Amino acid sequence: MHTMKLLKWLSVLSTLGMVFVLTGGALVTKTGSADGCGDSWPLCHGELIPSEITPELVIELSHRLVSGGMGILVVILAVLAWRQIGHVREVKFLAFLSVFFLFAQALIGAAAVVWEQNDFVLAIHFGISLISFASILLLTLLIFEVDKKFDSKSLIIRKKHRLEIYAVSFYTFIVVYTGALVRHTESNLVCGSWPFCNNAAPLDFANYSAEQWIQMGHRLAAAVLFIWTLTACIRLMKSYSHSRVMRGGWGIILLLISLQVLSGALIIFTMLNLGIALLHALIISCFFGLLCYFILLSSRSSKYEKES
């Protein structure tokens, strides 16, 4: 009992810590602090205690310290979860993923500092961090599920709905990549209007710059995701009206994607307000994490179908 209590605390701290890692990474990119420590890693400018302190250095170094602390915490969580509840079908796989992708994102971040990378490669960094966050979040939910805090085992998701959940989750990852590409190519404010690049001439594509194509490509991808999520939510909530997990979960998913669209528009209207931009990154992280939970439930449903 004492170990399970410790495990729950560790899982919650790890999940919250990963939120700081994700938003910290977005903060580094949005404030142009990626070079705050020069081209050295893990030290700043090759010094244990930096001699010249700048705001960019503080942001970059803080992100590295938080990520390093999270690495230790997640390893402890993964080992304890493996030992205590490894009998649960998904635990060992998620424990491995949470550690692997957390260290993968750290190594990609280090490589970006030491060796200059192009924007298309750098955009992968946020996606890798997102997978690590989702793995830790799912591990946390499993730990609380084992402790009987909630029960979702009675939910059986039909095959056609499972396939749609897989598809929309994969597509979300693509949309996340395009959003990261907008940040890394500094394309946030290349379009002065919303939802079109120029509301006065919405179909005038002839003189678009590369940055404007990236920005509008992301907006189009995000619009498709919103419409897809809305229609999927209506279908799933209607088909599983008996399930509190499905109704509540997809209700939250719809709320998150609506807030994501709103915050994306506010980024333009507020001329890249930092708080709104960080909120934009946080909302999509929660959205993707919840979708991954339904991937987990879908995989269970597939297993139950095969056994019956």
**How many strand units?**
0
The 3D shape can be described as: flat
Helix content: over 70%
- Structural class based on helices, strands and sheet pairing: mainly alpha
Query: Mind summarizing the main beta sheet?
Result: none
Instruction: Indicate the proportion of strand residues.
Output: under 5%
- Element-by-element helix/strand order: HHHHHHHHH
Spans of at least 5 consecutive residues with low confidence: none
Cα-atom radius of gyration: 21 Å
Average pLDDT taken over every residue: 86
Number of helices: 9
Distance between the termini: 34 Å
Q: What is the number of independent domains?
A: 2
Could you characterize the architecture of this molecule?
Heme binds at residues 218, 280. InterPro entries: COX15/CtaA_fam (IPR003780), COX15/CtaA_HemeA_synthase (IPR050450), HemeA_Synthase_type1 (IPR023755). Belongs to the COX15/CtaA family. Type 1 subfamily. By secondary structure, this protein is mostly helical. It folds into two domains: 1-150; 153-308. It contains nine helices and no strands. Helix 1 (2-30) runs antiparallel to helix 2, helix 3 (91-114) packs antiparallel against helix 5 (124-146) and helix 7 packs antiparallel against helix 8. The chain is flat, with a radius of gyration of 21 Å.
